[in-house]
Design brief:
Layout (H helix, E strand, L loop, with lengths): L9 H8 L9 H4 L6 H26 L5 E3 L3 E6 L14 E5 L2 E2 L3 H9 L6 E8 L2 E8 L1 E2 L7 E2 L2 E5 L3 E3 L17 H12 L10 E3 L2 E2 L5 E2 L4 H10 L4 E5 L3 H8 L7 E5 L2 H12 L12
Parallel strand pairs: 11-14, 14-15
Antiparallel strand pairs: 1-10, 2-3, 2-9, 3-4, 3-5, 5-6, 7-8, 12-13
Helix pairs in contact: 3-5, 6-7
């Protein structure tokens, strides 16, 4: 499920105001001051690439393969003026831990931050040149009233290294961002396992995937629910943090689409197994 973001004209703005499938977002939320469309495109592409590699690792582990991965941390790129990070972080800082837990990938870090709340004070451990520093940042909001916490920096993984026992290729075309991670993992598992995890049903879903299998929240959940409806999906896997909004999006719609809240990929697989009448234990025959 993919959400299209585009600028609107005055006529488009008026039309969108009466269409519950469309959410109007101030431009500065998507492109803060000092950040260009190309900056965002590069950041989204980096997160997509990270997401694919993490999704492959998670899927291989769930199907019995041994994998290993590491990185040199997550580097800070541009810092938005007036953001929580301004005056605390510097461009080129490498984040190696968040709240005393190691950080390997940009997607993992974003998910952990989004588990917190606006106003929370969090600690980053960073490398700055030869120094190791602990920095405290008070999480801000994307815009007034928005509950999504942000730091206000672009980030990208540095020196990621994966050791996979088999080659897995993912073709995502020009789509960016990390929100397809969960479904990448599920499709890889489906290709490698002896069972059809869809059981012939049309399964929709969204959510980031972390290296430990946690499923993180995404943006545009309302539009993705409508996308699942239009595609004739029978079941939609929804990140736990987005579930309430997903349910609200379905209000007033006569549909048999079943929404399931998932916090991990294991939750997602169990939901699909229950829905389709198969056993999660059948996915693997042990370590390969």
């Amino acid at each position: 499920l993919t959400v299209l973001r585009e600028s609107v004209t005055l006529v488009g703005y008026v039309q969108a105001s009466f269409d519950d499938r469309i959410t109007l977002i101030p431009r500065e939320v998507i492109l803060p001051e000092g950040r260009t469309s190309e900056d965002k495109k590069r950041a989204d592409q980096q997160m997509m690439e990270d997401s694919q590699q993490v999704a492959i690792a998670v899927a291989l582990e769930r199907t019995g393969y041994e994998v290993s991965f590491a990185s040199d941390g997550v580097e800070v790129g541009e810092i938005s003026p007036g953001s929580a990070a301004e005056g605390v972080m510097q461009e080129g800082d490498v984040i190696i831990a968040f709240e005393n837990e190691p950080v390997f990938f940009s997607g993992d870090l974003v998910s952990r931050i989004q588990e917190r709340a606006v106003g929370d004070v969090v600690e980053f451990t960073i490398e700055r040149g030869e120094e190791i520093l602990d920095l405290k940042v008070t999480l801000g909001a994307r815009e007034p009233g928005d509950p999504t916490p942000i730091v206000g920096v672009t980030i990208f993984t540095v020196g990621s290294r994966f050791d996979f026992p088999i080659e897995v290729l993912i073709e995502s075309q020009n789509i960016g961002g990390p929100s397809a991670g969960l479904m990448f993992s599920i499709e890889i598992i489906n290709q490698l396992s002896p069972v059809d995890v869809t059981s012939g049903h049309r399964i929709a879903g969204t959510g980031t995937i972390d290296s430990d299998g946690s499923v993180g929240p995404i943006g545009g959940i309302r539009q993705k629910v409508f996308g699942a409806l239009n595609a004739g999906a029978d079941l939609m896997l929804v990140p736990e943090a987005n579930f309430e909004d997903a349910v609200a999006a379905l209000e007033g719609h006569d549909t048999e689409l079943k929404l399931v809240s998932v916090a991990t990929i294991d939750d997602a697989l169990q939901a699909m197994a229950t829905f389709g009448g198969w056993s999660v234990e059948s996915l693997s025959n042990g370590t390969r």
